[in-house]
Structure formats: C-alpha cells, structure tokens
Amino acid sequence: MTDSYEVFKQAILELTKVDLNFYKERQMKRRIDSLISKYDITTYVGYVVKLKSDKVAFEEFINYITINVSEFYRNPEQWLLLEKEVFPYLFDKFNKNSLKIWSSACSTGEEPYSLVMLLSKFLPLNRIKIIATDIDKRVLAQAATGLYHVKSLKDLPAEFINQYFVKVNDRTYQITDAIKSCVEFLPLNLLKDHYPSDCDLIICRNVLIYFTDEAKNKIYTGFNAALKKEALLFVGSTEQIIQPQQFGFQNYKSFFYKKS
Q1: Most Cβ neighbours (<10 Å): which of 20, 65, 72, 222?
Q2: Among residues 54, 60, 33, 58, which one has the least CA distance to residue 44?
C-alpha cells in the first residue's frame, strides 16, 4: 500500500469502532493487505472509500479481521476437565441451577453450544443459559442458524451428535432448537463495551493471541471485574497468563484461573 497505515487505523476506528492499535500490527497488516489485493485498489484511502460505499465489502472486512476459526469440543481433554472437575467445583461453590456463563468471542457458536450440551449431562435444558458474544454480527447470525459442516463435529462425543443434531445432508448438520434456545447471542467489543457482571465462568479461548500486551491486560482486568469471587476464567491452550496475580487471578487448573 502506498499511504499511511497509521491514518488507515484511525479511519477504521471512526468507521467501525474497531481499534487496530490493539492488534499485533505485522500480523493484522498482512491480513488486511491480502484482503485489499482482491480489489483494484492501491491505497488504504481508496479502500476506506470502498468500505464506506460498499456494504458487502464492509461486512467482508469485519469478518476478515475478526479471526473466526472454531469447532465443537476444541481440545477435547480440556472439555473432559470441565466435565470432571470444573463444573463440579462451580456447582459446589455457586447455585447449580442458575450458573452465569459467558462465552466471549464465541465466533460461529460451536463453543457455547458445546457448553450447553456438556451441561445437559448435569442439568435439564430449561435451567441452562449461556451468554455468547462476538464483535462480528455476521458470525453471530450464522451461529443463531446452527448449521455446521460435519468437519466441525469431529471431536464432539457421538452421544451429543445423535441427540442434539439433525443431519441435513452428507456435509451439513443442524443443531436442535432445544440447544439453540439455551444460548443468547449478543454483539460485544471486548476492548470498548461493558462486560456482563457476576459471572461464574468466563470462556475466552484462542482469541487474545492476536492482541497486544496492552489489550490483553485491559481484557484480563475486565474479566476479573466481571467474575464473582472464586469464579473461573477458561483460556486457550496458547494463552496462559503470565503472573495472573497482577490481574487478581490465581492458577486453578491448566488453562483455568480463579478470581482471588
């Protein structure tokens, strides 16, 4: 690109309320340059003009810069830990029938739906409610439809597939309305919006690796404030918190942190 990326970042902030300063620059700039190269555009200014005038290009941009890679039961060993140790701890510590669980940066819904299915082993569905948020409204709409490629179900226990999915064709499955009704999908920007309060469990996995240390610090501090005392934060396999004490957490289990 032949003009300033700094000016582009400011224009994007004004246009979308997404602050690219909080993303690792080399990685994000490479993604954006790749996207722009699809068009006959040679400047960031020209691309901003297109985003303002072309709704399809605008939605494509938002979807492209928000990393949406997800699957059911991602890292199955961590879901086993949830089942065997984490949920029993939460049931013992808080009200089993009214747990408040927030799946942040939920992408296309695989994570919150996995939570509902796993919780159904302990509770009736009418007592399960998951708050699921993402900055990208398009993936939230996709999540609400509940249609998934068979590949995204590869790690999901067969009992859940048999009980909670309808096979549409050889490649596509749809999750049942009974599971969908347990999840409330809402738009939320982790860097500027208010967080849900009094949570018993917050899940934020495989997202913060794309953020700067400044942004991570802000988000971890916000997560701590959003949790009840002794409630838990569940992070991704590559996102261990260095010195969790500085954010008011202590180690609980691998990839789980307890609010001090």
Answers
A1: 72
A2: 33
What is residue 83's predicted lDDT score, i.e. its pLDDT? 96
Which structural domain range is residue 231 located in? 76-259
Sequence-distant (≥ 6) Cβ neighbours of residue 73 within 8 angstroms: 79, 114, 155, 156, 157
DSSP element (H, E) containing 228: strand 227-235
* Better-predicted residue by pLDDT, 19 or 236: 236
What is the pLDDT averaged over residues 147-170?
91
Question: Is the full-model pTM beyond 0.90?
Answer: no
Q: Can you list the positions of beta strands (E) in 136-217?
A: 147-149, 165-167, 172-175, 183-187, 199-204
Domain of residue 223, CATH code: 3.40.50.150
Judge contact between 104 and 188, C-beta under 8 A.
yes
Instruction: Specify whether 91 is located in the same domain as 172.
Output: yes
Clarify whether residues 108 and 55 are in a common domain: no
| 228 close to 200: Cβ distance less than 8 angstroms | yes
